[in-house]
Amino acid sequence: MADSKPSERNIPPHRDAKGGVEWRSQMTAPNDSVAVINMVSDRLIPIVFVPGVMGTNLRGIGDAKGINWRLDTGASMVGWLNRDEDERKKFLTPATMRVDDGGALPKGTTLPDAEMKRRGWGEVGAVSYTEFLVWLEHAFSDFTDPKNGVRHELIGQALGAAKGETALSKDDVALSYKYRFPVHACGYNWLDDNAVSAERLKKRINQIIKYYQEKRYKCENVIIVTHSMGGLVARHCTENLGMSNIVLGVVHGVMPATGAAAVYRRLQAGTEGDKLPSWVLGEDAGEMTAVLAGAPGPMQLLPTPQYGNEWLRIRETVAGKLHEITLPKSNPYSEVYLVRGKWWSMVSDRLINPLLDDGADDYKKQLDGEWKKYAEMMILVVEPFHKALQDKYHCNTHAFYGSHADNKSFGNVTWQAKDDFELLGRGKRRADIINGERTALSEIKETRTVESKLFDTGLKSSIEQVYTISKPEEPGDGTVPHRSGVAPIKHASVKSMLRVKAGHEPAYRESMPARRFTLRAIVQIAREVENTSLVYKK
To answer: Nearest Cα to 228, choosing from 196, 194, 203, 271?
Structure first.
């Protein structure tokens, strides 16, 4: 009788403290099993994840030493509930904050903590991202059981992409198994200019490649995966900093490609919503303006000229007839962002720096100085960044965007006056609603009380109205509206796009369609390795 074939025991690879591969086994009683070690490739294509705005852990320096923006858990951010606009102005600035790599690290991988930290996982908010990083690491570490891996599941499977729907082939997946895809992350100071953050990303990419080359791995390119504002950072890095040839491709998730009108809303009334994240980010115009008016990164999320015009609307209804003024007509910078002193002005000069003494003799002069600094930031940093990025995408781009009626976003922002039923002395006369005067400066949330002159002649010369800012009305992801999320679809550089029902912040954490699309896109981008020296010779 022939001997039966010995059973096989797969020994999975682990990462040592320096990122190398090792196999762990132990002595056991003799049996007929055979240990099988599957060798892993020495050819690496690192994945670099770039988080969104507010998604990087920060630590204070100088006067802000000991102050942290740490997204380990929801509880780790509770301290910011009690920080008013004075503290936010003092601590949350580009100059007083630096990237903090000491954030919480996840369990559930074969990576030692030292290796995860080296890869930058501690830089990004654990509550938003580490679950996805673990999932992606597992998806590219299934060498011992590939037929049960996600890559294998995607062979021949359509995902319903709005553009570039191409299922993975067996050859696509087989090629990806010839390489290793270590998952890295690169945080950045999201308060600072995104161009500065792009420089940091460039430096990190070069460091990653150099590290692996010094360890005698074959490595010369990376693939970037982004979330939200991280997409703007990556686009500037690849298209304006000369990194397009080093980066094989980019996968964007819920990117505000042409901006988000929600930024205007937040500067006027605080972060929308009534949950802990909203309270932490800023409950009203005072808390938001104190930070954002000196933070170019978040302000670069404002609608660009490509977003379109007339997204800011001021309305009143007189005798059943709607009257409306819409802005901008052609230039959002001069017509909206830099308008000073109007009741609807995006930035109120007196809220820019709450640390000023409003009783000082030179208070007006100080306000002028604060406005000048803000205006220079918008003119010299925000607008040039928008222009430099216009229509620029890596030549091998894939993206998913959230667009669903359940996740309404601010496509337009509307100030609506309460219907005026008091026609005595007014009649059907319109009010000069764009030039009205605020009567209650303490209003820094959803309402404004405004006194406006009435056109033509009558018993009344002016009228007091209460304006309320609108609710989000456009399908999107809760932050980015459809028009901005889908904007890249028209560009030839964008190879595929998927529409998902996903909220903005938890897009990678909660949406499996988004994850599977990202994985498929990475495998498709990896085909480009055949145009590099890492290709296997036939």
So the answer is: 194
Cα dist from 392 to 244, 245, 260, 535, whole Å:
11, 15, 18, 28
Q: How far apart are CA 55 and CA 103, in angstroms?
A: 11
Strand ranges across the sheet with 247-253: 183-185, 47-50, 222-227, 247-253, 397-402, 494-500
Rounded CA gap, 473 and 530, in Å? 46
Q: Which of 37-46, 54-63, 263-272, 343-352 has the lowest mean pLDDT?
A: 37-46
Over range 156-164, report the average pLDDT. 97
CA–CA distance, 40 with 20 (Å, rounded to integer): 11
Close Cβ partners of 24 (under 8 Å, ≥ 6 residues apart): 11, 14
Q: Map tokens 């062979």 to a residue.
A: 155
Amino acid at 59: R
Question: Phi and psi at residue 102, in whole multiples of 5°?
Answer: -100, 20
Residue 435 has which token pair?
Answer: 């030039």
Of residues 537 and 223, which shows the higher confidence score?
Answer: 223
pTM, 2 dp: 0.92
Q: Cis (ω within 30 of 0) for the bond into 475?
A: no
Q: What is the pLDDT of residues 3-21, one digit of tens each?
A: 556 665 555 665 555 556 6
Tens-digit pLDDT profile for residues 343-354: 999 999 999 999
Give the CA-trace dihedral at 237, 244, 221, 398, to 10 degrees.
90
Q: What is the pLDDT of residue 1?
A: 46
